[in-house]
Fold:
Amino acid sequence: DQQVKQNSPSLSVQEGRISILNCDYTNSMFDYFLWYKKYPAEGPTFLISISSIKDKNEDGRFTVFLNKSAKHLSLHIVPSQPGDSAVYFCAASGQGGSEKLVFGKGTKLTVNP
Amino acid sequence: KAGVTQTPRYLIKTRGQQVTLSCSPISGHRSVSWYQQTPGQGLQFLFEYFSETQRNKGNFPGRFSGRQFSNSRSEMNVSTLELGDSALYLCASRYISGANVLTFGAGSRLTVL
Structure:
């Protein structure tokens, strides 16, 4: 039972354009969502997060949007840069610091110069 | 601050053998989680330890086990290795209170022949 789904295994965009990565979840108890970025031969690194009390969180070129009614979140990268090419994982958990993070299968983003 | 350190980074084993992987968390982090990453499956949760006690466990067979020491360092063990155990094993640490952000190590790449 996959509780966090990233339905696009890969995405290719041109440098300078917007990258939109999508994530859906099924567990209504999730109320904290994170995005991680992973380069080959490295561990995932935390990118940005959002709590369920918000519908948008922004950090520089990265913005995460949350639609609780649709159980959907998305990560926008504007403008996209070649260095953004990596695998992006969506993750979700309950609050409280004691809940495990549940990850999606990842989306491989390629930004072409 | 030093990051999460995992050893060994790469190892090759044969079917039926056992393997032990080590993880040193960030100083002050008392929670250590382990994840398995395989192609097309994303990051699958193995278990989490806090104060030497297993607090959460994923859906893996009993061949997968772990422990945590009083200095928060953790080990995971896989016995009777199978070909399907070939994967990247990731360790992550976090503070137990506040946001659920995990900091990952670079991983241990296990190949089972």
Q: What stands out?
A: The CA atoms of residues 4 and 10 of chain A lie 16 Å apart. Chain A has no helices and eleven strands. The first strand of chain A starts at residue 4 and ends at 5.
